[in-house]
Amino acid sequence: MPNDKPDRTPNFIRNIIIEDLKHNKNDGRVHTRFPPEPNGYLHIGHAKSICLNFGLAEEFNGLCNLRFDDTNPVKEEDEYVKSIIEDVSWLGFDWENRLYYASDYFDQLYDYALQLIKKGKAYVCDLSSEETREYRGTLTEAGKESPYRNRSIEENVDLFERMYKGEFADGARVLRAKIDMAHPNMNMRDPVMYRILHAAHHRTGDKWCIYPTYDWAHGLEDSIERITHSACTLEFEDHRPLYDWFLEQLGTFHPQQIEFAPMNLTYTMLSKRKLLELVQGDHVNGWDDPRMPTISGLRRRGYTPASIRNFSEMVGVAKRESTVDIAMLEYCIREDLNKSAPRVLGVLQPLKVVITNYPENQAEELDAVNNPEDASMGTRKVPFSKIIYIEQDDFKEDPPKKYFRLAPGREVRLRYAYFITCNEVIKDEKTGEIKELHCTYDPATKGGNAPDGRKVKATLHWVSAEHAIDAEIRLYDRLFVKPDPGAEKDVDYKTFLNPNSLEILKSCKLEPGLKNVVAGERFQFERQGYFCVDSKDSKPDGLVFNRTVPLRDSWAKIEKAMKNK
RNA sequence: UGGGGCGUAGCCAAGUGGCAAGGCACAGGGUUUUGGUCCCUGCAUUCGGAGGUUCGAAUCCUCCCGCCCCAGCCA
Fold first, then answer.
1. Is the ipTM of this complex over 0.90?
2. Residue A212 CA distance to nucleotide B58 C1' (Å)
3. Helix extents (H) in A481-525
4. Å between A436 CA and B5 C1'?
5. Cβ–Cβ < 8 Å for A534, A300
6. Residue A375: is it exposed, middle or buried by C-beta count within 10 angstroms (0-12/13-18/19+)?
7. Which of A213, A431, A522, A534 could covalently link to A544 via disulfide, CB atoms 3.0 to 4.6 Å apart?
8. What residue spans define the domains of chain A?
9. Is nucleic acid strand B under 7 Å from A166's C-beta?
10. Which nucleotide minimizes the distance between its C1' and the CA of A413?
C-alpha cells in the first residue's frame, strides 16, 4: 500500500477509501477533486480541503483535479481564478493537465437536462421566485405543486430551448426537477436546475443566458470527470440525496459524495463573504494583507507551504464542528522555520550603547552561526564597534525580580561578541527618557566566553551603529480581539477587529549582511521571531520586513504571571 | 412541531465490545552564547446524561439533554 507516513492519524474518509479499495470499487481507482468557486480568495480552511483531496490522491496513487465551479457569472471573476491557481500550486500540489471548469461542461449539462425533460423528470416553471418560495412550503409543512408541473414533454422541450435562445427575461422561468413537493428534505421539493441570467460569463462570454445551479451541475461535473470520492463540507449533507437522484435518473457514473466538517480558527474569520467585506471596507489592505487568513495573506506574512500542509494534517478531518486554536498554526510555522531560517541580528526598538573603553574608529569582524539547528548553513561575519544598538526592552533601570537582562551595574553577554557591564544611564534632562547607556567591555571575553569561567545570565542581540542598515518592520497581531468574533449574533463581528493588529516600526537597525535580501526571504531575528521580506513594499533602498510570528517568549509569561499576582 | 448531522481533556483528534493513542495549549524540571530549540515529567478511574444487554461497553440497545445545518432562481 502506498503509505510513506504510517504515523498519520486515521480519518473516516481515508477509511472509506481503504474499504473501497479492499472491495475493488471503481476498479481500484482513487480520483478526487478540489472544486472552488472563483468568487474570492482561498483561505486556510480551503487549504485544509486542498491538502485533503490532493493528499488522498497522492497517498493512494490516484489523481486530483483542480476544477472551477463557475456556474454563477454574476459573482465570479478571472482575478479569482488566477489567485486560486497560484495558491494551490504554491501549496505544492500539481493537477498536471487536469485543470477544468464547470463551464467546460455547459453543453453536456444542457443535453443532460433535455434527457431529464424527455424522461418526464424535469419541467419549465413560470412561477416567480417569490411564488416559488411560497409553493415550497416550510420546514414542517409540505409544499404545493406548481401549476406548471404537468406540462407536456413537448412543451417543456420547446420552452427550455427558448430559454436557451434568450427569448425570456431574467427570472421569467426556470427549469426544475420533478421530484416531490412534500419531501421532508427541502432540497428534494422540485429544485431549480437552470435559471435565466443574461450576464456575461468570465469564460463563455455571452454564449449562455441560462446557467445551471450547483445542485444540478456539481454531481455531473464529478461524474464527467469520473471522480470516485467527492469530498465536500457538512452543509451539503442534505444535498446528497439530490446529488444521488440526478445521477441515478441519468444512469451516469456515480461518484460518492462524502461530507466533512469545515474548519474554524480562533481570532480570525473564515468566510469568503466576511473576508470580502473586510477587503471592500478597507479594514485590511487587500486579500493578501498579512493579517488575513487567506493563503495569499499567509504567504505574504511569511508562512511556508510545508507549515500549512503540516497544519492541515495536524488538525485532522472529521464530522464534528471544530474551532482550531490558532496557536496550532503558529506552532507549525515556528517548527518549520526553526529548522530552515537563517539567524540574524536585528534591533527593532534601538537603544544606543557606547562602549566607553572600546577604541574609537575600530571595528572587528566577529563570527556568528547561521543556524544552530543546522551546521551546514555555516557561519558569517558580523561587525562590532564602539557604538552599538540594543533592544530597549533589554535594559531596565530598575529591574524587576527574575529579569536578568541589562541593568545598572550588571554584566551581560552580547551575542558572539563580548561581555559588557552597564555603568551609566544617560537621560534626557526634561523628559527623563533614557537616551543612551555607557558600558564597558571585557576584551578577554571576545566571542562570548570568559576565560575565568564567570557566567552571565543573559545574552543580548545587538547591531553596530555605523554598520547597521535601516529597515521598516511590520508587527502583526491577531486580526480580532475575540477567539470567536462571529459568536454574538446581534453584534457585528467587525466590532471585534483588533485595533492593534498592525504596528509599524520605522527605524529598526539590522546587521549589514541583510542589505541584499530578496522579496519573500525569511529569517529569524534572534530572540525576536521570524520575519520575511515583504513582497510588495520592500525596496533595496527601503527594506520592509513582516513579522511572521514571534518566538515563544517565556519571559513575557513570567512578567504576566507577576502582574496577575 | 419536519428532515439531516454532531457530542471523547482548555483546543484538535484516534478509538467501532477487552479495559482511554497522539498533537496543540498549560504546569514543573534538565540542557543551552537565542528567557528560542531540544530533552524529561505531569495533565480524561473516564468518553453529553440516565437506564439496559454482556464476564466485560466510549464502542451494542432504549430514553433523555445539548449544539450545528436546511425554506437562494448562492455555492
1. yes
2. 45
3. none
4. 64
5. yes
6. exposed
7. A534
8. 12-265, 272-342+471-563, 346-468
9. no
10. B33
CA distance A383 to A358: 14
Nucleotides of B under 7 A from a protein CB: 1-8, 10-16, 21-27, 33-38, 67-75
Pick from A188, A186, A192, A184: which is nearest to A245 by CA? A188
Question: Distance (Å, rounded) from C-alpha A309 to C-alpha A64?
Answer: 16
Q: State the cell numbers at A367.
A: 563570527
**Measured CA A160 to C1' B20 distance, in angstroms:** 60
Same fold yes or no, A12-265 and A272-342+471-563: no
Question: What's the predicted TM-score (pTM) here?
Answer: 0.96
A318 CB less than 7 Å from any atom of strand B: yes
Domain A12-265, CATH class in plain words = alpha beta
Report DSSP state, residue A255. Answer: P
Nucleotide in closest CA–C1' contact with A132: B73
Looking at the domain that runs over A346-468, which CATH code has it been given?
A: 2.40.240.10
Q: Residue A324 CB closer than 7 angstroms to strand B?
A: yes
Query: Tell me: the pLDDT tens digits for A35-74?
Result: 999 999 999 999 999 999 999 999 999 999 999 999 999 9
Which nt sits closest to A400, CA to C1'? Answer: B35
Residue A406: DSSP 8-state: B
pLDDT tens-place string over residues A289-299: 999 999 999 99
Decide: A223 and A253 in contact? Cβ < 8 Å: yes
User: In whole angstroms, how far apart are CA A549 and each of A128, A445, A462, A485?
Assistant: 53, 33, 20, 21
Minimum-distance residue to B8 (CA–C1') = A320
Q: Is the C-beta of residue A171 closer than 7 Å to nucleic acid chain B? A: yes
3-state secondary structure of A177: strand
Distance CA A33, CA A218 (A): 11
Nearest protein residue to the C1' atom of B38, measured from CA? A373
pLDDT tens for each residue of A259-289 = 999 999 999 999 999 999 999 999 999 999 9
Judged by C1' against the alpha carbon of A366, the nearest nucleotide is: B33
Superfamily name with CATH number, domain A272-342+471-563: Ribosomal Protein L25; Chain P (2.40.240.10)
In the complex, which nucleotide's C1' lies nearest to the CA atom of residue A141?
B2
